Structures are given as C-alpha cells and as structure tokens.
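hi! just following up on the protien thing from before. the input was this:
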Amino acid sequence: MSDGELLDHDRLDEAPHPRATFHLIGHKAAEQTLLDAYRSGRMHHAWIIGGEEGIGKATLAYRLARFIFAHPEPAAPDVVEAKDLEVDPNVPAARRMAQQAHPDLFVLKRGLTKDGRSLMGEISVAEARRAVNFFSTTAGEGGWRITIVDTADDLNTNAANALLKVLEEPPPRSLFLILSSAPKRLLPTIRSRCRTLLLKPLSDEDVTGVLKNLPELAGDTDPDELSRIAGAAQGSVRRAAALLAEDSLALHDQIAALLNRLPDLDPSALHALAEKLAGREGTASFELFIGAIQDWLHERLTLGAARQDARLAAWATVWEKTGRAAREAEIYNLDRRPLVFAIFSDLAAAQRG
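and the predicted 3d structure came back as:
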C-alpha cells in the first residue's frame, strides 16, 4: 500500500478503498439513472454526484467507471440486458482499477505535501492541469477516458477554472465524475455544464449492515450499541466508523447536549469540549464535531424550508461559515479551540433569530 493510499481522505481504516469495493449499499435509483443514461448512447460527459460524506459517492463513481471500462459499447447486448452496474472483480478492467493501474482512469484529488507526511489542504491548479492533459492523450482501451474528481469541494478557484475548458469542449468518449458534499457551493460555471445526481443518506439498517460486514471496524461491538451508532451516524458509514472509536459516542452525546441547550450556552462545557478537539490527537474528534454541527444545521434547514422559518438565512450563513472555518483550520493548522466557541456563538445567534 502506498503512502498516498494510507493518507487517502476517502479511505476508512480496515475497510477496502472505494475502487476495490464491488458491492453497492443503497442508491439503487441513482445507479439505475446512470445505467439508463449510459446505454441510451447519449451519456452526458460530466456528472456531479452529490451527498453527505461517507454515504457511497466514490463507491458509485468507481462502480460506473468499472462498468464502462468492462463494457465500452453502450449498445452491446450485455449492457442492454444489465440490471445494475455490477462487474465481476476478476475481469481485467476491474483488476487494473483495483490495482490503480488502469491507463484510462485519472483520479483528481489532493496531493501530498512536500514531506509526504500529509495531504495538501486543497487540489492545486497543477493537479487540475494534469487532469486536463489526461484528456489530450489517446485512450488505451475501449476508447473511454474517465476522470473522478474526489472531491470538487477541495478544488481551489484556479483549479476549478482550469477544468472548465475540458468541461466546455469534452473530447469524444470522455467522462467526468465529480464528487461533492456541497454541490450548490461549486462554481456556477461548473454546475451548469454537469448533470447533478444527489445521493440520499443511507438508512440505519444499511449502515448497520455495512458495519457488520466489516468486522475489522465493528469488532465485537454489542448489537444494540451498533444500532445506536448507526442512528447517530445520520446515514454516513464514515461517521459510524468514527463513532466506533473509543469515547466517540460519548463525544457525540456531549455535542448533542450542547446543541439541545441552544440558544443558551454553557461556557464551562464548551471549554471542556474545545480542549478535547485541540491538537493533533483531536483531529478525528474535530471531524466528528463538524459533522454533528452540519447535521444539526441540515435538519433545521430542511424543516425550516417546509415551515418557512424566518431563521433560514441565518442557519444557512452559519453552515457556510462553519464549513469554511473548518477547512481553513485544516489548511493552516489553526488552533481549534477559539473556533468551537465561535461556532456555538453563531449557532446561538441564529437560533434566536
């Protein structure tokens, strides 16, 4: 396993990488949409696959790429008769993808820092230009060239603009699969050139099923505890895996208790929480914290839209601000403790309206 794979942001410890995951949990309607589009012979050249982190966006993207490489002719009988995008793991295209050796697949993601010890905070324009240049080469097999952008949320502005040329003038048999946890925040010029396919969070039963099939993750966790973790994960296998870590469920409950007090704040409890999220040892806990905050805001935005709640704009502003601040804390290695207080202050103000 390469150092880059060890640091891959979309890889769960002790779980197969999405490119080597051959079973799709949930998302049957989305899978059918992609299959129907492909065998129609009019496959759109760029798709934004959107949804929360850890629900299977990358797994679906690799699944589609694998199917196209294994069946490069949309009108072929095996494509017309296919019920899903399943591919035998032993076919050459599937093996090459799993080994990161398929010449016609390019994955655009954050690169390593110069010391090779961590991932860059964003996808640079240099990396984006590599993707553009990839489409100027001749396809090695079957005529299809596919780029998976994982994720577009990591693109800096220059990198996003660099992709526009190939999105505007795609060569024949080219396909962009653009993953995003926040598609509406992508550049309008990118969104307008893509079809958007939104994935829903997994059901609690699906999350539990995934965990049970990964004993390296779930271990001997009590079934009742596993069900509670699946419920707290809000449809995300990644978040469920984080909650399986020691003390993580207790941290989730601690965050939930503070959110339930809003708009009232408990400075002492906030200080204790901020200390838990500080330093290198608090990185995983901080990710769980940001996920919990965004879940809370997402629930209010969804319910508020139906009720025409006057606080909608304030909640949306906090959502944007929280995501941006979390990204900056990661990129610039900022102290997370002031951020915890700032986020809860903003949440309290938004909740008051």
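Residues 245-352 form one domain.
The first helix runs from residue 3 to 6.
cheers
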